[in-house]
Amino acid sequence: MPLFEYRAYTQAGKTLSGIIDAQSRKHAHEKLKSKGLFPQEIRADSSIISVSAINSERLSFALMQLASLLKAGIPIIKAIESVVSQVESKDMGRALVRVKSLIEEGKSFASAVEEVNVFPPLLAKMAAAGEAVGNLELILEKYAGFLEKESESAKKIAGAMVYPSVVMTACAVLILFVISYITPVISGIFDSFGKELPFVSRIVVAFGFFIKNNILAIIICLAGGILCFIRLVPKKIKDALKLSMPYAGKAYRMMMYSRWARTLALLHGGGVSLLKALEAARAVIDNEEIEKELAAAERDVEKGKSLSVALCRYFPALITNMVETGQQTGELEKMLNSAAEFYEKEADRRISVFLKMFEPAMIIALGLIVGFIVISVLMPIFEINSLVK
Question: How confident is the model over 141-166, as a mean pLDDT?
Fold first, then answer.
């Protein structure tokens, strides 16, 4: 069903704008009037929904609202309409309106989410599981919580990287300024006296002239190198590099374990069979090396092995022991969530320790570089002073 953007007045004279689905402009006008609104402008909405606008934080908020409304016994069509009226993102509103239109055509919520094709694939699988067991609101609530935790983890890492990034950028700008503009001036003064710069200063001046004369080529080469790495280097190699990073590689692996365990707990606890839950949980792992290990474990489970035995070849003892306990006690979901929380905290701790070590190491390295440049500048200044005397 087509979408229309509208601007209308309420009975109190307040202006409202939003999106509505209707068979035609006339039908959209009638739908708005039936809601007690007085349309001022209605136009067809042909804009493409931006996938980047459906971020974890916004989606988590919308799903939490939807789950609350469904728990209160409100029909899903009216519940989605209510959420659409409250979301701030137009793209999110458009996506939800399209989901509502598909549901009105007879499709399930899960099928509608999958067809709109801007939501995470895991949402459709979770929604299908919720509809199968007749508890969609609980599944949506759990998935919203999952998204919230993922968003919080990403913010922690991004926040921790702000200070080192600012310091490195500031030092890089200062160093480039000194070697590109200050040292050439000193070189000119020495030339006027017919004297040669000290050896250390000559190195810095030569480097400064090289950067100043080739700045555009350097920028193009750096940008081209980064672009080639992103576009041409196979994902398999990049994933292997992530895991092989000293210290940080283990933290990254733990983050992947945490995401996998939490997703598996969410799916299996929501009524999805173990094999299907394992397959879906593997889809949230953004690393081919770990995906291969999980795929091998899935094949072992399919052959009849227990999950703990299948995982023991690839995963640490802690998670396999927790899985074994969960299977024996019938609390697999609880044990997987406990494992996810442990690995999440351990990854945070490792990242925190890494940054605490990285910051002083970075400051020492930058201090040595700056010190070398300062010496290369001061040495000729002292010599100029002696020449003037």
Answer: 77
Non-local CB neighbours of 320 within 8 Å, separated by 6+ positions: 308, 311, 312
Sign of CA dihedral 39, 41, 44, 46: negative
- Per-residue pLDDT at 16 exceeds 70: no
Render 8-67 in DSSP notation, one character per residue.
Answer: EE-TTS-EEEEEEE-SSHHHHHHHHHHTT-EEEEEEE--PPPPGGGS-HHHHHHHHHHHH
Tell me which DSSP letter residue 177 carries.
H
Rg (CA), the chain: 30
Q: Is the pLDDT of residue 18 over 70?
A: no
Measured distance CA(233)–CA(252) in Å, rounded: 20
**Residue 60 one-letter amino acid:** S
pLDDT band at 383, cuts 50/70/90? Answer: low
The segment with the largest mean pLDDT, out of 69-83, 339-353, 362-376, is: 69-83
d(CA 277, CA 284) in angstroms, rounded, equals 11
| pLDDT on residue 51 | 63
- The rounded Cα 235 to chain-centroid distance in angstroms is 17
d(CA 42, CA 34): 15
pLDDT at 1 over 60: no
Element (DSSP H or E) covering residue 122: helix 121-133
Query: What contacts 382, CB < 8 A, 6 or more positions away?
Result: none
Of the candidates 295, 339, 338, the residue with the CA atom closest to the CA atom of residue 313: 295
Residue type, position 5, single letter: E
State the Cα–Cα distance between residues 20 and 5, nearest whole angstrom: 6
* CA distances from residue 133 to 17, 64, 108, 129 in whole angstroms, order as listed: 37, 19, 14, 6
Looking at residue 282, what is its pLDDT?
84
Burial class (CB in 10 A: 0-12, 13-18, 19+), 206: middle
Spatial CB neighbours of 189, under 8 Å, sequence gap ≥ 6: 380, 384
pLDDT in tens, 258-283: 888 888 887 787 777 888 888 878 87
Cα 344 to the chain's mean position, in Å? 16
**Cα separation, 205 vs 184, whole angstroms:** 6
